[in-house]
Amino acid sequence: MVFVKVFAALALFTQVALAGTKLWDGDFSYFSSAAAFDNWSWANQVGPYQWYIHGNQPTSQYLALDPSYKNPAATTETHGLKLTIDQTSNWNGQTMMRSELIPQTTANLGQGNLFYHFSIKRAATNAPVSSLEHQICFFESHFTELKYGVGPNPTDLTWMVGGVGKWSTPWTADTWFNFAYDIDFSANTVGLWASTGSSPLTKVVQNIAASTSTNSADWHLGVLRIVTQPGTTDLFFSGVYVESGPITTSRSSNFGTTNISAPCVNTPCINHYCKRTSANPVGPMRR
Description:
Elements: H1 2-17, E1 21-25, E2 49-53, E3 63-66, E4 80-85, E5 97-103, E6 113-122, E7 134-139, E8 144-148, E9 156-161, E10 164-170, E11 177-184, E12 189-196, E13 202-209, E14 219-225, E15 233-244, E16 257-258, E17 262-263, E18 273-274
Parallel strand pairs: 1-16
Antiparallel strand pairs: 1-15, 2-5, 3-4, 4-15, 5-14, 6-11, 6-15, 7-8, 7-14, 8-9, 9-10, 11-12, 12-13, 17-18
């Protein structure tokens, strides 16, 4: 019994030791309601997300929070996000349907070897239409992204590099798919880590050449449907953050170290941020 306990402790220590340092935290636990996303503006850049790419209806039509919307394996999160596009989701006069969140941060998310983490799920209801192209979790230059409704297997979720499919998997309903873009901005390469449910990430594609670049505010967490037409699509997101290496492969908790203060998204705080404390490990402190 003692040996088992020691072995378990060593395994946990190894996981912690191999975890990276979190540079930006997109945990939806920071938000008490969908309306809290509206506290961000160009004049008031608070919270972990920019929220301006969406239709002309209230935010509650495009974003919703609930414990059932998160990956159950993400034990440090209180709730996940349901993100919606519908017939009102034209943004800025474009003939596309869009609902997208973008990191709000002063951190440099475009240098060294970084890992962009997120988990995504679709349901059987309001599922994306496989005859239409969907761009998901993409950079502005589209050097890497997920797509659905493209290629020889349009019902697959396909990982793209420079517009070319490099890996795919059938996108089954009600399954959490976990991803990390392995981006080496110095070497100009990108690889992919993936898993499902509570399974740890494994590297499914080794790093290959790519035109890697970001200004730290052009990674679009959400979905863009190329065609404007009626129909509602819901996607669910959980476990969103960016870290430097080595990669955190666990889905059960965020083992990496962090010096990030908790962003105030529900009420104003000094300099828009609040210090993390043992009593307030994840959420914003009320002021």
